């Protein structure tokens, strides 16, 4: 079955760093556009960035530019989010996402989410 399994969340102090991982299985990871989304408490889900199949970040959220680094290792079926200089406003549930279209078929998979809490 298709799975996106996330890890790396937790509690960190303001200014700290954290790395999230998202491991895919059950699908051809290298063909999928990957993304990170986040949902702060009481707010709508927002796109953090798309990561192209080749690893290039796109549509990066303005508030995280210069602080978050996005990468993927297709050989390991893994997506990464390296977060630095964390701020309380970064507190959210973070989700990874995989999408792909093949003719009329569209595929849209989500990780389970992981909590990132930045203390002030």
| Count of DSSP H/I helices | 0
Assembly category: single chain
User: Considering DSSP H and I runs of 4 or more, what fraction of the residues is helical?
Assistant: under 10%
What sort of overall outline do the alpha carbons produce when their principal axes are compared?
elongated
Question: How confident is the prediction overall: mean pLDDT?
Answer: 97
Q: From the alpha-carbon coordinates, what is the Rg to the nearest angstrom?
A: 14 Å
**How many strand units?**
11
- Uncertain segments are none
In whole angstroms, how far apart are the ends?
40 Å
**Series of H and E elements:** EEEEEEEEEEE
Structural class: mainly beta
Query: Proportion of β residues?
Result: over 45%
Largest sheet: 7 strands, mixed
Question: Can you put this structure into words, describing what you see?
Answer:
The protein has 120 residues and is an all-beta fold. Helices cover 0% and strands 56% of the residues. It contains no helices and eleven strands. It has strands at 3-7, 10-13, 18-25, 33-39, 46-51, 57-58, 68-73, 78-83, 92-102, 105-110, 114-119. The strands form two sheets. Strands 2, 4, 5, 6, 9, 10 and 11 form a seven-stranded mixed sheet that branches. A four-stranded antiparallel sheet has the order 1-3-8-7, with no helix packed on it. Strand 9 and strand 10 form a beta hairpin. It is elongated, with a radius of gyration of 14 Å. The termini are far apart.
